[in-house]
Amino acid sequence: MAQQGQNLIGLSKKELRDLAVSLGEKPFRGGQIFRWIYQDQVQSIDGMTNISAAFREVLKQCVSIKPLAVEEKQVSSIDGTIKFLFRLSDGLKIESVLIPPNDVQEITEDMRRLTICISTQVGCPADCKFCATGTMGFYRNLTVGEILGQIIEARRHTPRRISNIVFMGMGEPLLNYDNVMKSIDIIGDDEGIGISPRRITVSTVGYVKKIKQMADEGRKAKLAVSLHSLDDAVRTRIMPINRRHNVDTILEAAQYYWKKTRQRITFEYIFFEGLNDTEKDIKMLRKLSGKVACKLNIIPFHPIYLPENSELKDTFRSPTAKSLKNFMDRLRRACDFPVMLRSSSGIDIDGACGQLAVKEEVEK
Ligand code: SF4
């Protein structure tokens, strides 16, 4: 039985079938509601036109459709990236970013792709030193409705079909495991949002138990692991999580995921000039292929990532064009797996996660 006023966005097909039965209808009515909510993105219960007027009235008495409220929307004049600041029902704010392909990062891939980067938590407990969201502290996990609401609302702002989902916005997805996995089930359902799990990427800083749980559950989503250094001393300095899950443990978990799922792992590596670009770093990266099938995404550090009050402000330096080319050339010569350059989308609109929400906090 649904709670009074419960949001239909966020309920699974089974929950909607159970709801229909609890209201005296056949289970298939729940399947119809599921399609209306996720496939057709209907904005009111009256819009569910293949459901009888009498049952729509019953539904209106006990449930509702509550979309996320757009507090602010910014469109990049450089690359068309759209950034949303959403206001949640308790007044907290989260961000999502719609990213079109750009000629640096997607030149060899499907130019029709449209990716949405979504948040999973308000703030984040992981406290990575280069990340604006990390400085906010942690408020709470997002509900399934709030996770899916970002996709449903963003779809209204583009004529194009969203083709890929990345869980790389605010928060660490694996610390909100159950809600993220339930969301992925609804996204991947042909009668739901209808995006194949193979086009969904879950990014983690390395919560090894949860990586293994995903593997054991036979999840089909792609896994991206934020490494940024293979040197435990450096990684601990910039990512405190490394004290709990060091590099070897994370690589062992990535290997486990690959062996169980046969999915190639993406390793993310923010390039900080002078910090993680030595010959020793390249030697360590080169050894990745002996452990796991992978590709490496190099993301040049940009100061927009950096929180105003970062204690490591002087440590994090953006690479020059010359040093970036040099690092990419050295890596590509050394590694026998794909090494991709990922540029920052939406630089002119503070495209890095947490920027808008942090600005709001500061202004408050
Ligand atoms: S980089 Fe990701 S995991 Fe690290 S603090 Fe930021 S949001 Fe959290």
What tags apply to this protein structure?
TIM Barrel; 18% strand; 12 helices; DNA polymerase, domain 1; alpha/beta; binds iron/sulfur cluster; two-stranded parallel ribbon
What this model shows, in words?
This protein is α/β, with parallel strands linked by helices. Helices cover 34% and strands 18% of the residues. The protein folds into two domains: 6-64, DNA polymerase, domain 1, CATH 1.10.150.530; 69-363, Aldolase class I (TIM Barrel, Alpha-Beta Barrel). Strands 3-4-5-6-9-10-11-12-13-14 form a ten-stranded mixed β-sheet, with helices on one face. Strands 1-2 form a two-stranded parallel ribbon. Helix 5 crosses helix 6 (177-188) and helix 7 (208-216) packs parallel to helix 9. The protein is elongated, with a radius of gyration of 21 Å. It binds iron/sulfur cluster (SF4). Iron/sulfur cluster is lined by residues 124, 126-128, 131, 133-134, 170-172, 205, 353.
Topology diagram in text:
Blueprint: E1 6-7, H1 13-22, H2 28-39, H3 53-62, E2 63-64, E3 69-75, E4 82-87, E5 93-99, E6 115-117, E7 121-123, H4 132-135, E8 138-141, H5 144-155, E9 164-167, H6 177-188, E10 200-204, H7 208-216, E11 222-226, H8 232-238, H9 247-261, E12 265-271, H10 279-286, E13 294-300, H11 321-334, E14 339-341, H12 355-363
This protein binds iron/sulfur cluster.
